[in-house]
Amino acid sequence: MCAGWCEERRTSISAGRRRDKGKGLDLPSWVCMLFLFPALWGQVSPQCPDSCHCASDTATVLCSDAGLREIPEGIPPETVSLHLERNFIRNIPESAFSDLLHLRDLYLSHNRIDSLSSGALRHLGPELRLLDLSHNQLRQASREDFGTTRAKTRLYHNPWHCDCTLQELMETLNLEPETVNGIICESSVRGVGEGSRWEDPGSLGEHAGQPLVKLLDSGVNFCSLQRKTTDVAMLVTMFVWFFMVIVYVVYYVRQNQAEARRHLEYLKSLPSPRKTPTETDTLSTGF
């Protein structure tokens, strides 16, 4: 609309512009420039999520301390560094970063993240160098959640439950050496024979409060503990099943014996048949 108006004005004053050629630009030209400049700027300026600040020169998106409760939409796809720390984010959906193919640094520390959707971080590109998930509420995570990322990863200050799945994850990720000792087991899987039958089943386990890396270095293998626990559970289940089969067989035999005894007693209680005189004479004559 503005362009059409400007074109019309240019046509109507073309004669006057030739007369005043040496006097500089006329007023309508300046007006057109003032109207067109914001429109053109809106077309070339990058998108930026609400409550965030985008620095196009460094491809950095700053959403720190923004009171966010979820990953914002509209993050520019050319983003290289994304700051989402110190918010109230609880979950990372699967497709949250699928369009950020150039992302190198992802800061998610000091949130309330307690779960990762399956494959939530799988879409992160190979250019990712740093992944910060420290100071959250993560208890469990698996290799499938992180995909094949080789970025330096921070996982300290989370209430981890140490088990075989977490052990396998630690052996896969490229953990930051300076913070690896901060990965503490708030609870752990219970080994075979650990505790007594009267112990609270909600107890934290033998390795609670200890750094996971030191436990693994000392020879603790949560995967073997889990396998032993599974084997014992299977043996107990088989024993219970076998015991139930034996009990049923004994019950079945006893029931049959009782039934046979009652039937025999019934037969004994029946009156025996008496021989008639004709049958007796016939037998005597035959002899």
Describe the structure.
The strands form three sheets. The chain has a seven-stranded mixed β-sheet, covered by helices on one side. The protein has a two-stranded parallel sheet with strand order 4-6. Strands 9-11 form a two-stranded parallel sheet. It starts with a helix and ends with a helix. It has eight helices and eleven strands. Helix content is 39%, strand content 11%. It is α/β, with parallel strands linked by helices and 287 residues long. Helix 4 (143-146) links the parallel strand 7 (130-132) and strand 8. The radius of gyration is 41 Å and the shape is elongated. It has helices at 2-12, 14-19, 27-44, 143-146, 164-172, 212-217, 222-269, 277-286; strands at 53-55, 60-62, 81-83, 91-92, 105-107, 115-116, 130-132, 152-154, 160-162, 174-175, 185-188. The relative contact order is 0.06.
The low-pLDDT segments are 13-25, 30-45, 192-201
Percent in strands: 5-15%
Shape: elongated
Sheet with the most strands: spatial strand order: 1-2-3-5-7-8-10
- Mean pLDDT level: 77
Largest sheet: 7 strands, mixed
Task: Measure the end-to-end span.
Answer: 140 Å
- Class inferred from helices and paired strands: alpha/beta
Number of strands: 11
Helix proportion: 25-40%
The string of secondary-structure elements, in order, is HHHEEEEEEEHEEHEEHHH
- So how many helices? 8
Radius of gyration: 41 Å
